[in-house]
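Fold it.
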Amino acid sequence: MQIENLINKTDFTSAEIAYLLQLKSEEEKNFLFTKAEQLEKRFFYSPINSYGLIEISTYCSENCDYCRLRKDNTSIKRSRMNREQIIEIAKEINKSGIKSIVIRSGYDDFYNEDRISYIIYSIKKYADVEIILSLGERTFEEYKGWRIAGATGYRLRFKSSNPNIYSSLNCFGTFESRVEHIKQLKSLGYKVCSGSLVGLPSQTFEDVAEDIQFCKELDLDIIEFLPFCPQNNTPFQYVSQWNDEQIKLTMAVARLVLREKNRCSKPRYLFSLEDYRLN
């Protein structure tokens, strides 16, 4: 297969994507990386898209096998920020010039519709920022209430487009229900960020190729591929992970296939519960 002809295509089959994910030649990989960088510069005048990330809770009612926040992990200290702390932190982030804030937690029902709506409304009252939520699967009414309060984005990864892999992660609900939630969010006008974990146990290159294709099918606003990293005190703590070169290759192939789609970048400011704890 002529790598130059393949890389310059604008429409790819899953088999072609899987082929690119397995490139071995350094010359071919560098050719791919260069093309991906060109697309990045073409579609995004600035590669930096900074945001502030506020981790509001380490409580979680779910038991995902790969996640350190899983409820059965008794080795971590559970904490929550209160509403006033969250609002003040958001105002400080905004003063630094950051225009996007992600509010993230585990599956913590303490933060119900009213509490999160109050936080969103209060932040928007004092700060000119885009508020993106990352609070897991919630009800349609909660999504609707938070949208009305002023939230504009929501992060909800589909983790894997292979239902069998999704089921093996011991996550809440089914793959089908996760997709339905993503569609609900889009129907409410949210800017939706989603994507998969890369390098999961039993995941193949073909699975990752389908994940990339599935992002196109969902018509996401922002796409996020995160490398699977084994966490201590979880069932997956001794599972091997993909190396940095393979992750870099995956990101380059995703940019090649998805082209103008945006991707989540690293936060410029991270406020976590290591610094802000309830008394």
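Confidence is low (pLDDT under 50) at residues 265-269, 272-279.
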